[in-house]
Design brief:
By secondary structure, the protein is an all-alpha fold. The chain is built from 28 helices and 2 strands. The longest helix is centred in the middle third of the chain and has 35 residues. It is a multi-pass membrane protein.
Length: about 650
């Protein structure tokens, strides 16, 4: 009982009046809200011993940067630019970033930090919407499964690059076809563009050695998504390596991953800069960069371009995945997450644009070498990183070195995101169970999730694996993210109440959210997201991979994957309403949406104002003293109602004992 008496005494001290308040109890409430940017001043009181915290704020920022800056910045963003008209894609991308991406990023960080809970626990704010948290878990599960498969392919290319000659350099291998034409085959040099152009005009079947290596050897691609074929053992082995690395880095939760990100979040920028300097010095690089920057304004009226921009923002920043809420939940309560959200969002956006320069400078060089238009040299989907770039690397001196650097960068970028995806699922499970038994065994939970992810990823290493990977990428993590984000905005702003949430942020940071964010959260972001969703549905086109058109049953599975995350929201809402108290449906709805009693700051020291425990001083004094000194409790009770200072006396005696 003595352990619980201290926080209760601190919490109820303010209502006693100036005469009965001791300075040590009052000082934290007067100072800490004004100290949002310096959370270390009350280190002991601002740390969660039970859940753990980041070692310092640099760890959180680097982890969030590693989470936001992932494979999508190199593998997805340049591909979307290429598909959606080069520089024309920049306009909707930045519009979505300013009015949707950054506001939602700040909302999720503040949401998780205020409650110090994962994507399930935060919905104590309005229990009926806990299905949003389950939807985030489903999305993170899908992404975590196929994301690690992409990392495993990068691992494979990284390993095979450790040779004198890259295996996709020439067309003299067993897997090559007669249509294969390599830029280095025979005695071709960089001045052979005329001969290559003539050859390309003679036949439209020209394929590069890197493309045939990718399709006919690495994937050994089958002819249909239903024809799984055999498991590609090299990819399966690399998938195991990927999951082992992720598990070892998360074996102690944020304590271990927070140290790893010092390298995984910073070294990719070193490699990116090296590749950028090398790329812009190549002949034809300027042409590629102009294709990257020159807008094709006719495509800006296509709703799919806007839909891709919105989904890319969510995909890149990690909105609606649950990872931002989870990472922020390990922050100290008074950390300035507003500052962090601006830094991380701008860093992510700048990295996407920077990576585009690196990719398109190489594409321009390769197009110039072949004497063709840039649009002819790039493949769709992940092939942009695993076909176009590897082929260009073969034209550089010491090509294995550049290949090793490039794929090592892809591995680090992917791992930074994968860490947070796995931690999101583990944290949600541990917080939901919440007892000491599972907290002590969090490592085993991490191991269990990693093993499950490995087993579920095995079908993606088959000969039809790339079809399933692209199906999951296009449906499981596309418009469902938009729906989840929109519902989260509505639930917090209109069900819980924007005034309550603004007060919570002011209590945490010492200042309310800026007016721009208030307007975006309440009106602009939900409206833009809703209309983008409508336009995307209206102009929907079935998925295809190169010349392969997905069958109807496969597209149906894609929609089921997308709905599986969204359907969690109404199912749990119905369940919660049925279990809530009330004689009428309206009463049940009110009780289901009302914030639960344990909503608010996790640590008792921060539960001030309307979150302060409602205990009377006399009751608290009785609870504190009676188990230790029954005779003293009786004498104090006989003394009627003493001055409030006596409660402080009782507290000091207990603390000494």
């Amino acid at each position: 009982m003595q352990g619980t008496s201290w926080p209760l005494s601190v919490a109820v001290t303010p209502p006693m009046g100036p005469a009965g308040v001791s300075p040590p109890a009052e000082a934290p409430q007067r100072i800490s809200p004004q100290n949002g940017a310096v959370p270390g001043e009350r280190g002991k009181q601002d740390k969660s011993v039970k859940r753990g915290n980041w070692g310092n704020q640099i760890e959180f920022v680097l982890t969030s940067v590693g989470y936001a800056v992932g494979l999508g910045n190199v593998w997805r963003f340049p591909y979307l630019c290429y598909r959606n008209g080069g520089g024309a894609f920049m306009f909707p991308y930045f519009i979505m970033l300013v009015f949707c991406g950054i506001p939602l990023f700040f909302m999720e960080l503040s949401f998780g930090q205020f409650a110090s809970q994962g994507c399930l626990g935060v919905w104590r704010v309005s229990p009926m919407f806990k299905g949003v948290g389950y939807g985030m878990m489903v999305v993170s599960t899908y992404i975590g499964i196929y994301y690690n498969v992409v990392i495993c392919i990068a691992f494979y290319y990284f390993f095979v690059s450790m040779t004198r000659v890259l295996p996709w350099t020439y067309c003299s291998n067993a897997w090559n076809t007669p249509d294969c034409v390599g830029v280095l085959d025979g005695n071709l040099s960089s001045h052979a563009a005329v001969n290559l152009t003539h050859l390309l005009n003679a036949t439209q079947k020209r394929t590069s050695p890197s493309k045939e290596y990718w399709r006919r050897y690495v994937l050994n691609l089958s002819d249909d998504i239903g024809n799984l074929g055999e498991v590609r053992l090299p990819l399966l082995g690399c998938l195991g390596v990927s999951w082992v690395v992720v598990f070892l880095c998360l074996i102690k939760g944020v304590k271990s991953s927070g140290k790893v990100v010092y390298f995984t979040a910073t070294f990719p920028y070193v490699v990116l800069t090296i590749l950028f300097v090398r790329g812009i010095t190549l002949e034809g690089a300027l042409t590629g960069i102009m294709y990257y920057l020159t807008p094709q304004w006719d495509k800006i009226l296509d709703a799919k371009v806007w839909g891709d921009a919105a989904s890319q923002i969510f995909y890149s920043l990690g909105c609606a995945w649950g990872g931002l809420i989870t990472m922020a939940s390990y922050n100290k309560f008074h950390n300035n997450c507003y500052r962090d959200s601006i830094i991380i969002s701008i860093t992510n956006c700048a990295t996407s644009v920077y990576a585009g320069f690196v990719i398109f400078s190489i594409l321009g060089f390769m197009a110039n070498h072949l004497g063709v238009d840039i649009s002819k040299v790039a493949d769709h989907g992940p092939g942009l990183a695993f076909v176009a770039y590897p082929e260009a690397l073969t034209l550089l001196p010491i090509s294995p070195l550049w290949s090793i650097l490039f794929f090592f960068m892809l591995i680090l970028l992917g791992l930074g995101t994968q860490f947070c995806l796995l931690e999101t699922l583990v944290t949600a499970i541990v917080d939901e169970v919440g007892n000491e038994w599972i907290i002590r065994r969090k490592t085993f939970v991490t191991l269990g999730v990693a093993v499950a992810g490995f087993l579920l990823g095995i079908p993606l290493t088959t000969q039809a694996g790339i079809y399933w990977l692209l199906l999951m990428d296009n449906y499981a993590a596309s418009f469902s993210l938009v729906i989840i984000s929109c519902i989260m905005c509505v639930a917090i702003m209109y069900i819980y109440g924007h005034r309550n949430y603004f007060k919570d942020i002011e209590m945490m940071l010492g200042f309310p959210p800026p007016f721009f964010f208030q307007i975006c959260w309440r009106f602009i972001s939900p409206a833009i997201i809703f209309f983008i969703l409508v336009f995307t549905v209206i102009q929907y086109r079935p998925i295809s991979y190169n010349d392969y058109v997905y069958p109807t049953w496969a597209i149906s599975i894609g929609f089921l994957m997308a709905l599986s995350s969204v359907i969690c929201i109404p199912i749990y809402a119905i369940y919660k309403v049925c279990r809530s108290e009330g004689d009428t449906l309206l009463e049940r709805l009110k009780n289901a949406t009302k914030a639960s009693k344990d909503w608010g700051p996790a640590l008792p020291e921060h539960r001030s104002g309307r979150y302060a425990p409602a205990f009377s001083p006399s009751t608290e004094s009785h609870l504190e003293v009676q188990p230790l000194h029954p005779e003293k409790a009786q004498s104090e009770a006989a003394a009627a109602s003493p001055v409030q200072g006596s409660n402080g006396l009782a507290h000091s005696q207990d603390s000494r004992l």
